[in-house]
Amino acid sequence: MTETVLVGVDGTASSLDAVRWGAREAARRQVPLRLVHAYWVPGHDFPELELTDEDVRAEMRRFGSDLLTRATRVAVETERALLVETELRAGDPRVVLLDECRRAGLAVLGSRQLSAAGGLLVGSIGLTLAIQGRCPLVVVRGVPVDRGPVLVGSDGSPSAEVALGFAFAEADLTGATLTVVRTWDGIPTDAATRHELERRSLDEQLSPWRERFPGVTVDPVVVRGKPGPVLVEYGRHARLVVVGSRGHGEVTGLLLGSTSQRLARRSPCPLAIVRADMHVNVVRESPGCRSG
């Protein structure tokens, strides 16, 4: 089965930004872009409005079809040679998109599609895909740009390996440099020694990835501080921030509590969330893959 880049479409400006980002990503990966809109209609009549359930469904289908037509136009304007698939489905958007993730290599949402508050909150579409989806999730904030490095946070845990693999592959696809940030906190007796130990640990973790991706320029950075604020600051000059989580329904590590909220709400560029239990396809770009 050919994997796709999946984008959830809801008609907001934020979701159209996600369509643009997803279109460029699909073109680089040389896979179809799949645009999905889900509508959820209560299963009873509305006599006070003199409308039947079927009337409501018909109107929702028409509205959703118009949204997908507009999103397709935006995608083709972004990447003219792109193969675009559309799907209009009835149901809870969380359930529909979670099912669609089973056939996707990457899922993309606009930042305003996450929840009413715009963050990764319990019950939101974003959190559902982040902790249960089978593929990485990219949350697109603002107008996507094709400049700056790919930025990944690495805490030395096994979950960071999957995030590193995704980040190296993205840097390879886009021709960008890769900035790998390791943070440490606390008050050690010898700050200089702790800093050096973290630097060596990061170099050891990066060594096999450097060999696998010799064409990627890597900039390792060790910073004393908390991961959330550090990644937000470095993300001001990045095209994509990548963070990892341990999976199994528990968002931890670099996505612990306030860090996830800070990145979901304040990341100045698209944010990729990659779980440790995901299989991430490492895609290498071939000559002529990029669309102009």
From TrEMBL:
Name the Pfam families on file.
Usp (PF00582)
InterPro entries linked to this entry: Rossmann-like_a/b/a_fold, Universal_stress_UspA, UspA
PANTHER family attached here?
STRESS RESPONSE PROTEIN NHAX, UNIVERSAL STRESS PROTEIN UP12
Q: What is this protein called?
A: Universal stress protein
Q: Which residues form the UspA domain?
A: 1-141, 149-275
Family assignment from sequence similarity: Belongs to the universal stress protein A family.
